[in-house]
Specification:
CATH architecture: 3-Layer(aba) Sandwich
Shape: globular
CATH superfamily: Alpha/Beta hydrolase fold, catalytic domain
Helix content: 25-40%
Radius of gyration: 17 Å
CATH class: Alpha Beta
Largest sheet: 8 strands, mixed
Number of strands: 8
Number of helices: 6
């Protein structure tokens, strides 16, 4: 597992099901996937649930993405073979290892549904560099104008049968009563832009093959940092309801 970050031990809820929901968050906090997984299990115990993430700064996470991708594949090898079907749910930077899992031919027959929640995109590694290029995803007011292949481009070549949903979050990060000043931890952006550039989020959907396109949804009441900003219990409830609905569709 990654040595440069604090790897968080997976949370595994075993209901003796033949269906697994794998939840991958970005630069996550423990209550991120704990909150979602436990609520999902309360809503529908017909699945088993597996969640994992890393804790570190955004810069650490980005520089270690190749290792995180490798670790997610290790997790898949440990768990996927036990199940008849697998569903992926991911947020933010968790979209990167999710895409690599989705596009891995080894898992084509297993992965049935994917839910991207406000996904982040990055440049693919170059032939001379094993690290993903760039210091951050396109966020806030930053124009989404990639100059070469990004991770989301892998979706163009996807040839599996999964149904893929995408949801973009348009709400600026808020403390529940008013917006944080933009200088505070970069939680907000000048001009009222949401955390993720919405053109970037839409690009995920546009690159999905027609036969795999699920729904594209816009959430106007949940911030990107949904376990840190705004009304956290409400955020978790809204996302749990959405994920449950999409997995059962």
């Amino acid at each position: 597992m990654a040595e440069s970050l604090q790897y968080l031990k997976p949370i595994y809820i075993n209901n003796d099901s033949q269906s697994l929901v794998l939840f991958l968050s970005g630069d996550g906090m423990t209550n991120d996937f704990e909150g979602i997984s436990k609520r999902l299990n309360e809503e529908n115990s017909a699945h088993d649930y597996l969640s994992f993430t890393y804790r570190g700064s955004e810069e650490d996470i980005i520089q270690s993405l190749p290792t995180i991708i490798e670790d997610s594949d290790t997790i898949a090898k440990q768990f996927f073979t036990k199940y008849k079907e697998v569903h992926l749910v991911c947020t933010s930077t968790g979209a990167v290892p999710s895409i690599f899992l989705l596009c891995n031919p080894e898992w084509n027959a297993k992965i049935r549904k994917v839910v991207f929640l406000d996904p982040a995109d990055y440049y693919m590694p170059t032939s001379n560099d094993t690290q993903l290029v760039g210091n951050y995803p396109w966020g806030g007011a930053a124009a989404y104008s990639p100059t070469h292949k990004t991770v989301s481009n892998m979706l163009l070549e996807y040839n599996g049968s999964a149904l893929i949903h995408v949801a973009g979050f348009t709400l600026r990060n808020t403390n529940g009563e008013s917006y944080y000043p933009s200088e505070m931890r970069h939680l907000d952006h000048e001009g009222g832009f949401p955390r993720m550039n919405q053109e970037m989020v839409k690009a995920f959907y546009e690159k999905i093959p027609t036969q795999n396109k699920g729904e594209y949804l816009t959430l106007n009441d949940v911030p990107h940092a949904y376990v840190r900003d705004g009304m956290i219990e409400k955020n978790l409830s809204v996302l749990t309801e959405l994920i449950t609905e999409l997995l059962e569709s």
